[in-house]
Amino acid sequence: MDLFEYQGKQYFAKYNIPVSAGGVAHTVDEAVAEAEKAQYPVVVKAQVQVGGRGKAGGIKLATNADEVRLHAGNILGMDIKGHVVKRVWIEHASDIAEEYYASFTLDRAAKQHLLMLSAQGGVEIEDVAAKDPTAIVKLHINPIIGLSLAAARQASVDAKIPEKALDGVADMLVKLYECFTKGDCDLAEINPLILKPTGEVHALDAKVSLDSNAAFRHPEWEEYAATEELDAREQLAREKNLQYIGLDGTVGIIANGAGLAMSTLDVVNQVGGSAANFLDIGGGANAELMTAALEVINSDAKVKSIFINIFGGITRGEEVAKGIVEAVKRVTLRAPIVIRLDGTNAEEGRKILAEAGIPDSQLTSRPTMLEAARAAVALAK
Amino acid sequence: MAIFVDQYTKVIVQGLTGGQGRFHGLRNKAYGTQVVGGVTPGKAGQDVEGIPVFDSVEDAVKATGANASFIAVPPKAAPAAILEAARAGIGFVVCITEGIPAQDEARVYATLQRDFPATRLLGPNCPGIISPGKCNIGITAGEIAQLPTATGPNVGIVSRSGTLTYQALYELKQQGIGVSTCVGIGGDPVPGTSFVDCLAEFQADPETHAIIMIGEIGGSAEEEAAEFITNHVTKPMSAYIAGVTAPAGKKMGHAGAIVSGGKGTAQGKMDALRMAGVKIGLNPTEAGSLMAEIVNNLR
Question: Is residue B253 predicted with pLDDT exceeding 90?
């Protein structure tokens, strides 16, 4: 789960990472009120989960209430790379002497935590990596040993952080690491990490991605889930407890298992179609799950055909087939279904589907994944 | 022969009295696996259809001589369960639990490396392992696995995805090709056992003559496998990588299956494997037919 900047900063603050005083605003009036609290000059920042906000005009400096009105009015409702701005973050403008970069992630290849630190911040780290890879210091951290202040300081020296900022940056790294580990982040990134003319080190931005598997020990995360930007289909799927990702194509996909669902998207693409979604209904495929899945797919106006791809392992073919027949009876579908049912007792399952009395215009069965994909794509054209 | 588990493997189920543990543990036993005990704290002395239950893994090992463990407990309890098994001297731990926080996985992995190097963890969030006709630990439906033949050629399967593992087993069964061992390594960010670990075992296993690998987007495990194959694997291979059409920045079901920053794409993985001499199928069926060609050439 990705946090907005303002949420990231609030999360940082819990781990004593210095951030600017500020507040979130949904309207121009709220923006002015927050600006008065933060004290001028302030920065008005669009809250969207996409890079390049500054270039798009989504970050503006304001020195008085009129300027806040002007900028907040322009930014709220602005479309930045397909993301509509619903909130702005207003914070006291910081004086900047220097800009650095710091992040913690899990390096899956090394199976250890990874610190990336650079004295060249404020720009995309990928650009720094491309131009001058030596400008980024990478330090692997054993998760059961952790990051000491001494190691953080050495990494800062290696990254050529200037002497005057060393203590501040090292202290910041230790705090950010604690936020990353205890806060169950997939990513905790500060870009830019700034040095103020007064010598303090400060997080000017916050990019935080949380590991949703750890939600059980973070009840405070519920407020973030409420602001997560899901489209209507994704919202419905979440309520039904389905693994769903909305896409742009015309073939609705239902499969059991994440790998098989991904593979189904690929096969549809190979035969010239495009998937409307990724939907994994999990290992089983009973009538309840299938009904919920069909309802979600049915809510997508772009869907012209539905491809159900089920491999029966422990869930036997006849149970899957009964579930589908029942679900088709419950949901009034706008698009025809093509089903591929394979695996344990697939023969019996196909027999149930064939004898259920569902017209061919509504449901047809194909023996292999490829043939079913072709049929579904043909129906979607 | 087979890899990691065979007819001599003695398995205990941690969480045998729970829904998942009972269901799959009994299925594994019915398949012929030596399921010798279960562990649920506070339930020592009970039994599940004749399988004795113990309070701790240590007690279970002392009483049964178990050398493998099947962990089917919720995400909160799984990290401690894995370490308890390791502490009791279990050499092979299969954890099917889905939803363990990545920070916990990383700590468990590092702890095993440092304190229990003799213990191998398979998973978490994996379907398990089956050496057909000998041992089945996990959630695989045993009947879809073709038995290996004494003379071969037999195929080893290693996969990151659950249902695609079954699909691979099924494709080989359709072709009448025997399977030595099928390993599901799981789709989480920090798997205890990697493609490379399995490839090394398959390469050394005289009963395995060819290998199918099923990968997916995210991470760099397939690229590492490709490098290992180039340098160490002489047995013929086919592979399939799921997620060619997956959009960047979206987790495709598995916690580990995500393309980010242009890294972990299916195309990059397929290219790396192709360079290593692996035949690439564009869908699971194609990977199966490519394997059938390979096997026919070996016959």
Answer: no
Check B190 against A370: CB less than 8 A apart: no
* B147/A contact by beta carbon, under 8 A: no
Characterize the bridge pairing of strands A207-210 and A185-195.
Answer: antiparallel
Interatomic CA distance for residues B191 and B121, integer angstroms:
8
What is the CATH classification number for the domain harbouring A296? Answer: 3.40.50.261
Q: Spell out the residues 6+ positions from residue A71 whose beta carbon is closer than 8 angstroms to its own.
A: A44, A60, A62
pLDDT tens by residue, A51-83: 788 889 999 999 999 999 999 999 999 999 888
Residues forming a β-bridge with B130 = B136, B182
Chain B residues in contact with A258 by the CB 8 A cut-off are: 161-163, 187, 252-254, 257
Q: Does B99 touch chain A (CB under 8 A)?
A: yes
Q: Are residues B112 and B181 in the same domain?
A: no
Chain A to chain B Cβ contacts (< 8 Å): 163
- Let me know whether A40 and A136 are in one domain: no
Mean pLDDT of the region A192-216: 95
Range of the domain at A44: 21-92
Among positive and negative, which fits the CA dihedral A199, A205, A210, A215?
positive
Strand bridging mode A201-203 / A243-246: unpaired
CATH number of the domain bearing residue B263: 3.40.50.261
Q: Could you identify the residue written with the tokens 């089983």?
A: A284
Q: Domain count for chain A, please give it.
A: 3
Instruction: Judge: A143–B159 Cβ closer than 8 Å, yes or no.
Output: no
A257 and A375 both lie in a single domain: yes
R_g of chain B, CA atoms, integer Å = 18
**Does residue A75 belong to any structural domain of this protein?**
yes
Are B180 and B214 in a shared domain?
yes
Which residue among A225, A248, A263 closes a domain?
A225
Interface ipTM above 0.95: no
Dihedral over alpha carbons B49, B51, B54, B60 (to 10 degrees): -170
Give the pLDDT score at A81.
85
